[in-house]
Amino acid sequence: MTGVGTIAVQTFRSMLGNVKMLLWVLLAPLVVITLMYLVFDVKNETDIRIGVPDTMDPTFTEGLPEDVEVLIYELTPVLDTLLDTHELDAFASMEDKGLNVTYKNEDPPKTAAAEQAVETGVRAVEDERLKGIMAALPEEAEIPKIEIETSFLYGDSASTYFEKMFPILTGLVLFFFVLVFTSITLFRERVSGTLERVLATSIRRSEVILGYLTGLGLFILLETVLLVLYSIYLLDVTIAGSMVWVFVIYILLSFSGAAAGMLIALLSKSEVRMMVLILLVTVPQIFLSGLIPFDYIGDWFNNIGYGFPLRYAGDALTEVMIKGNSWSYIWNELLALALFIIGFTVLSILGLKKHRRV
């Protein structure tokens, strides 16, 4: 058996022998995700952007709430492209006696606010028409009503805020627990002297790191499968795209967390320093991963997020799980995650040099 295989088997057996640690790693993320589901399963009000053609009744746009930004287009564009590239929350057009509205529905709270705004605009049009016909029609005349036909680019009317946040929340939880689990595991190997004994043999440093990564990888795969299946079948989260790509993204994110965890364990001289490094890696990603809308974050600070793996994983998961897209939309993010894994692994191999006594 090669050095990588030997260390992988040894790591796997040590994990099986620590039942409490294994249960903590597997079940704790599920508890955290459940709590987040209960907290974020709400709808909030926010500012919205609505597009209309230049033929739209001006009474409708004037009747919209003041905080709604209205964009007027000379020609009715392709809605899929328009809603995405122009960052609109809805596009409304008037046809005969009806109003056609397409909502982007990427963010359910914004969709709810857009629906209320459209209803306000419709009431303004109805009131204006009513004033114009009241004098000419008898009292028993029927007042025309505007019928609203609604469609959604992403999701449906039952979409919740948790579904919008789910890809980023689960990525954050998974990354954090894998990072902590790997850091603690390798740090204990250092403290117990196991790592030094391994380094005293002829096994290369690269084999040591790859061996630990392979051994821990089996539990990473198990955790990923458990988390995704739990979210889909128990929390009833809808995945618009392919589940295969969801697993690929989560696995790459998990291995980047494991590789980063090994690097932290090798750089830490004490448990306190290890926890500080874990916080330095994790906390910024809470603010820069998309949990907080990027519109509320300064551009210079927002760009820092591209230095962390969770930013790419969150973008890729949103494309697959919410928008239903696949490889052509996420290959950049997958490449970035792979580079993070390679980078952290290479740095860990270099970091082992100071621990080798022979």
UniProtKB/TrEMBL annotation:
Keywords: Cell membrane, Membrane, Transmembrane, Transmembrane helix, Transport. It is found in: Cell membrane. Residues 130-355 form the ABC transmembrane type-2 domain. PROSITE patterns: ABC_TM2. Signal peptide: none annotated. Belongs to the ABC-2 integral membrane protein family. This is Inner membrane transport permease YbhR. It comes from Jeotgalicoccus saudimassiliensis.
